[in-house]
Each structure stands twice: as C-alpha cells, then as structure tokens.
Amino acid sequence: MHLSENDILRRVRKVEIKTRGLSDEIFAGKYHTAFRGRGMSFSEVREYRIGDDVRDIDWNVSARSERTHIKVYEEERELTMMLLVDVSPSRMFGSKELTKKNIITEIAATLAFSAAKNNDKVGCILFSDRVEKFIPPKKGRSHILAIIRELVGFEPAGTSTNISEALRYLVGVNKKRTTCFLLSDFVNSPADDTRLEDALKIASMKHDLMAIRVYDERDAELPNIGIVELRDSESGRTEWVDTSSRRVRNFWADSYRERYQKMTSLLRHNRVDVADIATDDDYVVNLIKMFKQR
Description:
With 294 residues, the protein is α/β, with parallel strands linked by helices.
C-alpha cells in the first residue's frame, strides 16, 4: 500500500508521541546500565600488577622492556546503536489490531529514543532479501524522526528475507563495536539457512548483537474456522486450507514450533540474546526483562 506524504508524516508523529514516552520506561529500566561500558578504547600501557588480566598483556612492549606490561582500556562514553530492521512483505501480517510492521516500528523508535537519552548515536539498516537502505549513525531528534519516517513509509524492492546479508553488511560498514538490535519475524529464506550461522558467528563476535523476534499468534496456531484461502506474503503462493481438520492445525503448529526452535538454538549458540514479542504483547515489559538479564 502506497502512503501519501501526509499519511507518512501523520503516522510518524503518532509513533513519536507514543514511543518517546515509552522510552523513559526503557531508559529507567536498565538500558543505560545494560550497555554501559561495552565500548572500550585503548588508553595506555603500564607495568603488570598482581590481579591484572593476563589477556591484556602487551607482549611487544614486554619483550622490549624486559618487564611485563599490559594494555589499559577506558570506557567509551559515546556508544553507537544499530537497528537492523526487516522490511520484507511478511511484516505486513497481523491478526489483531496491529501488524508486525507496527510493532517493529514502535520498538525501533522506542530503542532509538532511549539511545538518544543516553547521548548515543543511532543508525539503521533496512533489509529484505537484500540491504534496502543504510542510514549512518547520528545523534539528534531530527535524525531519529528520519529513521521513523523510513520505517513507516519505506517500500522494499525485495520479496523475501535474507538475514545473513544484513549481518554481513553490518560487519562491513561498522568497524567499531556497536550495540545492535535485529528486529524481524525471522521468517528467513530457506536458501539462506546455511549462510546464516556463519554470518551470526562473525557479527556476534564483532558487535553486541540482540534479536527481537516479532510474531503473530496466527503464525503459531490456526483457528478452527473452516476452509480458508491462505497466501504466503513473500512467495505469493496461495492455498486453500481446511482449518476444521485437527491434523491440519497440528501440522501448522508443529511446523512453526520446529522453525522456532531451530532459529532459537542457532541464535543462542552464537550468544545472541532473544526477546519474543507478539503483536498483542506489552513490548516494553519484554525489553526491560531482556536488559535486566544482561
């Protein structure tokens, strides 16, 4: 659906009004402590003292001086947040009042305003089966509003989802360690599964990566409402399904559970924290819970 300029501006304003207030809860609920100190920069070299971490030993300086020296790091006060946002067609689904796109947009905006309160830079990568748009990290309200505007009005060229492509782009474009949120329903292209593990491994080593999986209850469970026509929003394929059949409903639920467990295992194996948020969930509560567990 193509939105007019006035429609986009109206929706941006609506998102801003809602999420700027919610960001206060996120910020008070551990955002600034969950990520403080994760960006470290080299400060100086000094002699080794008992209790120092041996992993910080500078072997070159130690060899030249014939005394053990270590590298000293200091906390970077300015951090960078990157939002990796899935804009593929499956985000348009929602069986309740809000679609996945609505929730993803609100969560991204809330996180961005929370970062702004911490005086952090915020950047954004929009992706589908390709990287659709890169917004370099900057500070300021007008910059955040520009990101929200893209989240509201962006129309992707891609028709499916390729998460590994977005992660590879992140690693290539951000050389310094950043705090990254990957927002998606994780309905990933099966062809990308083999590449995703390597991409996650590299990205999680270089950046502080967290996954926010947004889903609708109908992704996991079909209601008993008779024969309906279902359409795959990414492939465009349609199929008539008899939802009154228990076998059909069980197959749907089992297929979703299998994909969910496989993706969860892959994320956690690569040390990526995951928050699952339904389209009718209180996402602020879920985000604060994730931050407190870090």
